[in-house]
Sequence to fold (1078 residues):
Amino acid sequence: MNIKSLFCTLVMVVCVPAFASAKPVLTVYTYDSFASEWGPGPAIEKAFEENCDCDLQFIALDSSIGILGRVQLEGASSKADIVLGLDTNLMATARETGLFAAHGTSLAGRTALPTSFEDDIFVPFDWGHFAFVYDSTKLAKVPTSFDELLAAPEDLRIVIQDPRTATPGLGLLLWIKSVYGDDAPKAWAALSPKIVTVTKGWWDSYSMFLEGEADMVLSYSTSPAYHIVADGTDQYKAASFAEGHYMQIEVAAMLKGASQPELARKFMDFILDDGFQAVIPTTNWMYPAGKAALPDAFDSLITPTKSLLFTPDEVATNKAAWVNEWQMALTQ
Amino acid sequence: MPLGMLGAAGLILIALAAIGALLGVGASRPEGVVSVLAGNMPRVWRVAGFTFWQASLSAMLSLLVALPVALAYWRRTLTWKLSHLNSLSFLAIVMPTTVAVAGLLGVWGQNGAISYLRRAIGGDGLSPIYGLGAVLLAHVFFNAPLMLRVFISGLSSIPAAQWRLAAQWGLSDWQRFRLIEWPVLKQLIPGLVTIVFLLCFTSFSLILMLGGGPAVTTLEVSIYTALRFDFDLPMAALLSLVQLTICAAVVAILARLDAAGLATVAPSPGKRLRQLGDAHYQIILLDALLIAGFLMLAVAPLCAVILDGMTDSLLRVITWPAFHRALIASLVVAVASALLATTLATIMAAARVRLERNGKWVFDLAVSLYLAVSAIVLGTGLFILLRGMVDVFVIAPLLLLLANMLVALPFAYRVIQGKMAMLAYTQDKLCDSLDLRGWRRFRLITFPALAPELGFAAGLSAALSLGDMTVIALFGSQQFQTLPWLLYQTMARYRAEDAAALALLLFVLTLLLFGVFVRGATYLGGRSRPHGRQSHVTD
Amino acid sequence: MLRIEGLRFSWGEDFHFTYDLSVASGEILAVQGPSGVGKTTLLELIAGFQMPTAGNLTWDDKDLVPLPPWQRPVTTVFQADNLFSHLSCLDNVLIGLGPEEKPTPALHTYIDEYFTQLGLKGLQSRMPSQISGGQQQRVALVRALIRARPILLLDESFSALDWDMRKECFDALKTVVASHEMATLLVSHDTRDAEYLGCRELRLAAD
Fold:
């Protein structure tokens, strides 16, 4: 009896604050690191709330893939006005759900991406390149191309993520596919003996790398910048491959069922403004999609000569087959 | 008892409803579903086959580890102080998977204790262990202690008279094993193997963390990815049905062999007499090796967790408001699901006693169903069924609660059911003749006798709830966090030390909660008096 | 008066027991016979743990057959396991009182007297595991005496006691049976029991 009422009270206490404020509430679903204290969330919230006369609330879900899943799960009863943190690989699937509305913002002249980006539903907010990160004090022979990586001796230990569960994992799969095309299975077969393990999430493999359990980890080209700023060390570097690097562009969209459509459109427009973009580099550790200044730490980062990217439709059509191919290649 | 039958029917319905809801989402495109199924069957069969294979291996290995250690432990209970081994080993059973894997890697990983020792004596460190071997190791870590406890419990229930006979006749070890120990152990094996097989069959986090790649996978992983990352609900439902069918078949086959159920897993003291052969140095050496080996397997990882977590971060993490929120949410859900699971398990165990063989079989199946249906399928399916009716944010904690309760139910049921059956057998006539029935009988007679099992079942359920990483991944958000959720988020933010501290805190909380339930139940059981006051004693 | 007429109990097709007997209030009937002849079954039929296939079972002309065990005016002392291991001896006795009755000081005095009489003095607060099997049976007897139901069934209850202690139990039994006017059936395989009690014997034989 006591426990039940305590529980109900707690549930209410936990859920009610969301409705306590008198101002209109804009609910944004995003992934956890974005909304955390150390992420871009707090600064962006502050900047937006200055002009909107509203209460911006981030709901942190566990991953970008999880965001889309959650919204699909909730369907029409979803509380989200905006989802922030999908990427180009999910765009086609997201569009097909029919849950998202046109943002009505003009993107022309406001983006600073290596490739052109035009879309009526999705607005890009940051981008990056996938790259293999290594410890320059420990790794002597660093591959300068994908071919070199594949030909490296088996005692080069690398750790990667599962393409089914982690964005970088899918990124690597698409990277290899865009470089090697139909020879991708052979590439995976050559890579396989060097793979220590395939982890479920990005942090699982990155922490392994930091603890010395692997020589190279699949991560972002911007990861070294974190260490420069936060740890004051430049020992971690990204390997630059001659064939080019695969890109990730992260996007946001508003929902058709948004309870605050005006506010949502305002936020979609705000994304490419300086108030949002300036925060990104040193909190999300990605390149801003809009025109914003980069911190000094970004100067030493690699700048790939080629940026590889499949269109959202290509990804949506082929993903299942390509993942199967990957599974088969690694199961030999 | 109609309540029990209602419970069994309800359980079967819920499981089927959840799966049905997933299938229903694809109902608008039935042709699509069929073609998806047809195209994927070869892959599904392969995965199912591998899952079956690794689960069988794991169960057999656990058995091969637990049996000799149980005999060694039993031989030595008189002379060596081993009771703490028994308690320590069960920690492995209640530990959350993430924490446990961290501990295992702390011992067996490239930078673990063993590597360190090897390097210290001039050799190389261990090479990475990921793969089937690591998965089997982890499964044995989790399940051998469970088997060990049950075996020891069984051995200690052998009547003293038999031991006296063995000592007097000077039976050799082999004869003693064959005539006295084996018959008891033999009865326990089918039930144990079933449960360990099912646990390993539905293994999920462990596979992802230690499997090393897609070659080592289970149906559960496929279900999870289909559900959360492909949002292919019909596929998830179909995989669920395949999993369910295989598990149900295994349960049915082993149930034919299973006489005693899981007997009692709660601690029971045992007496042993000195036997011929105990003093032979070979036996002593063997026992020492077995027990030391077991300690290293089961206890070393726990030490690794403790050592890793004892950093300055510990003091910092405790002050986080997020930690407090997550702590309260976790506690509330864990306690509530533990109480619910234990209550339902008790009701069903009581009802089962009065059924004949077929009815018993249906009951056991209804409960064991939840060993084969994953929490995430339940959570998602039920969410879909309910989402139109209730606010999505309010539903989340309740569904988490329900899912946790259902996951814990098979364990609680098995722990309670054996003892309950035994109590019924010895006490039914006596209670009937004294007009001790219904609630009064439960309060005065059954509860005190059952208290250790109830406490253990509740504690185990709470521990399982605290360790849940799958359903909370579905429903978690900043507003509603549990400790495992917080742990996972912290891990994703370059904060290794904080994560290790959180892992330690989660582990300690699990232990505390477990202890509270066990102690609490024993206390409540001891307080039971027929007329509610102290006995009257003359002179 | 306990009346049993043509009471029949069957196992399967060909196996059955038939009973014809009566026991008056305040009377003790010793039921004797070789093992397997149906002595325990008789007591179970009277107590309500088994259902007869034919015949009459009445107490003071009231039909007992439709009544469940807890509604029958019967106390059974089984051969073993009469006590609950988590209750003290005193609590074990008190629990026989049933949900409605409350213990009075007078009752406690009676209990103490019976304890003393049966050689259990001072054992009220002991747990069953701390006393011998024979002592446990005597505690169960005290409980039966306290319940004072009109019918008392003793199923080899004292067979494990030595003769001297058995005599003391029988003495106490005789007194209480007479004062409470209980109709008592005593199953035993020792012919001395009936002799000592000086009571009627019923010899059961296989059909």
About this structure: The radius of gyration of chain C is 17 Å. Residues 3 and 61 of chain C are 8 Å apart (CA to CA). Residues 163-180 of chain C form the longest helix (18 residues).
